[in-house]
Automatic annotation (TrEMBL):
Protein name: Thioredoxin-like protein
Domain GST C-terminal: 99-232
Stretches assigned to the GST N-terminal domain: 3-94
Transmembrane feature ranges: none
Cellular component annotations (GO), alphabetically ordered: cytoplasm
PROSITE patterns per UniProt: GST_CTER, GST_NTER
Length: 237
């Protein structure tokens, strides 16, 4: 029997979503525990993740209840580190290719996604930045995508795809609904910019990721949209 793996997550957390996507794509057995981020249980920081954030994973040890984690399990946090851990745990899943050059490319894609897409996108959604850096990041990412291929790197779904997909799902919501703390209309405007021929390759790749069963299984678009609606009611006109 394989070791237990528990993913501590939050339904709206894009970082949690990366990890769950990788688990589903690897066909890995896992269970989840929803952490109430507005009222975190005391044991979460003391027994699972000292940083206090989701996602976090416990691996191995005895099969205890998730709200009473065992000191004997390994505790792993930070979404990108957990992605690497899963790729190590499931070497035949293709989450990381075997070829060293392709592995490096996957890691580079993850790095670029984290710094140049994820960060500016979430800053834009929070109304802290214009979308200029989002577009720059997407242009950079597009430059890494090879013509005629469906995946970020090579011919297989990898942690690079898992890393960017939750951002793509949120990009879809904000460009279709204009929901965010940014000034009214800016979400739609970003969507219009992305509809141009300049971003055709990125659009094709993004659609492929959004169509994957793993994304549909792990991302509740309606729930996330409703949350955005309630969260972003006060708007700059
Ligand atoms: N760099 C972290 C970011 C994780 C993160 O910011 N998680 C948020 C939810 S999306 C969280 O747990 N926030 C609760 C808190 O900061 O108290 C990662 O990639 O895992």
């Amino acid at each position: 029997m394989s070791e237990q793996l528990t993913l501590y997550l939050h339904k709206l957390s894009p970082y949690s979503a990366k990890v769950e996507l990788a688990l589903v794509e690897a066909n890995a057995p896992y269970r989840t525990y929803q952490v109430d981020l507005s009222n975190k249980p005391e044991w979460f920081a003391s027994k699972v993740n000292p940083i206090g954030k989701v996602p976090a994973v416990t691996y191995g040890g005895p099969n205890v209840e998730p709200d009473d984690p065992s000191p004997l399990s390994a505790k792993i946090a930070e979404s990108n580190i957990i992605l690497e851990f899963l790729a190590d745990l499931y070497p035949d899943s293709g989450l990381l290719p075997k070829d060293p050059v392709l592995r490096a490319k996957v890691r580079f894609f993850v790095d670029v996604t984290t710094k140049q897409v994820e960060a500016p996108l979430y800053d834009f959604i929070r109304g802290q930045e214009s979308y200029d850096n989002v577009l720059k990041g997407i242009e950079f990412i597009q430059g890494l995508l090879e013509e005629g291929r469906d995946f970020a790197v090579g011919d297989h779904y990898s942690i690079a795809d898992a890393c960017i997909s939750p951002g793509l799902a949120r990009l879809k919501i904000i460009t279709e609904t204009d929901l965010g703390k940014f000034p009214v209309g800016m979400g739609y405007k970003l969507g219009e910019e992305l509809k141009g021929p300049k971003f055709a390759r990125f659009r094709k790749y993004a659609q492929g990721m959004l169509d994957r069963p793993s994304l549909k299984q792990t991302h509740d678009e309606e729930y996330t949209t409703t949350f955005f609606k309630t969260r972003f009611t006060e708007r700059v006109q």
